[in-house]
Write a structure and sequence with these properties.
This protein is an alpha/beta fold. It is about 20% helix and about 25% strand. The chain has helices at about 195-200, 205-220, 225-240, 245-260, 275-290; strands at about 5, 10, 15, 20, 25-30, 30-35, 40, 45, 50, 55-60, 65, 80, 85-90, 95, 105, 110-115, 120, 125, 130, 135, 140-145, 150, 155, 160, 165, 170-175, 180-185, 190-195. Helix 3 packs antiparallel against helix 4 (about 245-260).
């Protein structure tokens, strides 16, 4: 049976799973479905349409499931979908999707959103991801499994961060961040292999050693890094036996997709469907007011 504090407000249309706890001064809006064991500690706002799996925990002042901060949004019934065992710390904000994309923002399972993280519309965070304090994720981004992002980092819209990546604090991610690597700085330069992260997640010593060999071919000579140099390094990797490792295969496919089919190094940008007309009403109204 769910426990609801007397000061909380739960909309009649909201669905609460077994053993859910709704703490003081919380709001659970219409169209919200909370799974078994979810806990709203206090002063949380959970809006819908949104659905949550089991055992998600929401700390004070987080606002989850609100409408997107996007001029393309026209008020449609877009959604937020969240898996199990996620932790949303204080002041985390997560917004629903927009009509010009799939209309869904997605969060997988076992993710930690530290204080002040923002996840914008139509973005996706998969599983076992750690986002440190005040990481800012723009719309339409994708963070794959087992990623760790340091505090104060910011992600340009349509960026993908590959699995098992480690991103240092205060990093600016303007283009796709390769999997298995450590990246940092204003342009997310690759600094080495995320060997410790790979080890923690149980990847084999052989895969880690192969990834270090791949790193030396791709990134060690930074003064020579260019699309042509990267393509040549990928050809070497595919011909010298390193490609036999499944994780190397994934890195190579990730980089080839970025080289051959991307805009500004962002593969997801090739799929964008919005148009200038989607924002025209906002600017037209502004021009009319300015002319008065």
């Amino acid at each position: 049976m769910s426990a609801i504090h007397p000061t909380a407000h739960v909309d009649r249309s909201a669905e609460l799973g077994r053993d859910a706890y709704i703490g003081p001064f919380c709001q659970v809006g219409p169209g919200v479905a909370l799974g078994d064991g979810c806990r709203l500690i206090g002063h949380c706002s959970i809006l819908g349409p949104s659905s949550f799996g089991e055992r998600n925990t929401f700390f004070p002042m987080c606002a989850i499931g609100g409408p997107p901060q996007d001029l393309k949004y026209k008020g449609g019934p877009t959604r937020l979908e969240v898996g199990d065992d996620n932790v949303f710390r204080e002041q985390v904000t997560v917004h629903r999707g927009t009509e010009v994309d799939a209309g869904v923002t997605r969060v997988g399972s076992r993710n930690l959103f530290m204080v002040g993280v923002h996840l914008a519309h139509d973005a996706e965070v998969r599983n076992n991801v750690i986002l440190a304090n005040y990481v800012q994720i723009a719309g339409h981004c994708l963070i794959e499994d087992h990623v760790n992002v340091g505090g104060g980092s910011a992600m340009h819209h349509f960026v993908t961060v590959g699995r098992y990546a480690y991103v240092g604090g205060q990093t600016g991610m303007r283009s796709d961040v390769p999997p298995y690597m450590k990246s940092s700085g204003w342009n997310a330069a690759v600094r080495g292999v995320n060997a410790e992260g790979m080890k923690r997640w149980g990847l084999s010593d052989a895969s880690i050693a192969a990834m270090k060999d791949v790193y030396r071919l791709l990134y060690a000579r930074r003064d020579e890094q260019a699309p042509g140099r990267t393509s040549e390094a990928l050809r070497q990797i595919e011909s010298n036996g390193l490609i036999a490792d499944e994780h190397v295969q994934y890195l190579v496919s990730f980089l080839r997709r970025q080289l051959q089919n991307s805009v500004h190094g962002r593969y997801l940008e090739t799929r964008r469907r919005d148009r200038p007309a989607d924002r025209e009403s906002f600017y037209a109204t502004g021009r009319e007011l300015a002319d008065r």
